[in-house]
Amino acid sequence: MAIEISATTRKAQGTGASRRLRKANRVPGIVYGAGEAALIELDHNTLYYALRNEAFHASILSLDLDGKKESVLLRDFHMHPFRQQVQHIDFQRVDAKKKIHMRVPLHFINAEIAPGVKTGGGIISHVLNELEINCLPADLPASVEVDLAHLDLGHSIHVSDVKLPKGVAVAGHHHANDAVATVQVPRGHVEAAAEAAASEAASAAATAAAAPAAAAAKPAAEAKK
């Protein structure tokens, strides 16, 4: 079921008009795509909490504009530099017959049973947190799962390993061999191991250096007897 958001047509334009809207707890926006662009305004609080929902950013939305519903995608929004205030928002109309290019979040699962974590003591590092995809609107997933269950220490899962839903293809700048997640020994453990190895090597070197001197001292001591 599509996420719904309501808006009304915005009559006034310009910086002053937008400032007055924000003071009235409204957010100026625009809907573009097929047909003419429409200037809109939305309730700030409703929109602010909708933006906190991950699915709102990667789903087909049902925009109710003056009582008429149309399918749209969230394309951009601007926040105030330091206030929790949405300044502006952009939506794009969706054509059900045309493929869309979207970024969808990656959800990592089974990290706790990955061999590199469970038996190797490693930690998972997320190289990518979202993936660019291409698909028809009806095939758009809200997120894509990445299964880490078989990830060994020092190994990576690549873009080519990610299982995509039917009708969805990787798009954008991604390459098949790009890493999505890796499992590595924590840096502190590596440094501790290196220090221990260095200390052991220094101790061995000191022992080796002392051996000839001890061997030379033994005959001298026996001669004195």
Can you put this structure into words, describing what you see?
This protein is of the alpha+beta class and 225 residues long. The protein is built from 5 helices and 13 strands. A 6-stranded mixed beta barrel has the order 1-3-2-6-5-4. A 4-stranded mixed β-sheet has the order 10-7-9-12, with no helix packed on it. Strands 8-13-11 form a 3-stranded antiparallel β-sheet, with no helix packed on it. A hairpin with a 5-residue loop joins strand 2 and strand 3. The protein is elongated, with a radius of gyration of 30 Å.
Helices and strands in order, then pairings?
Blueprint lengths: L2 E7 L5 H9 L2 E7 L5 E6 H8 L2 H4 L3 E5 L2 E12 L6 E8 L6 E10 L5 H4 L4 E4 L3 E6 L8 E4 L8 E3 L10 E2 L8 E6 L2 H38 L1
Parallel strand pairs: 1-4, 2-6, 7-10
Antiparallel strand pairs: 1-3, 2-3, 4-5, 5-6, 7-9, 8-13, 9-12, 11-13
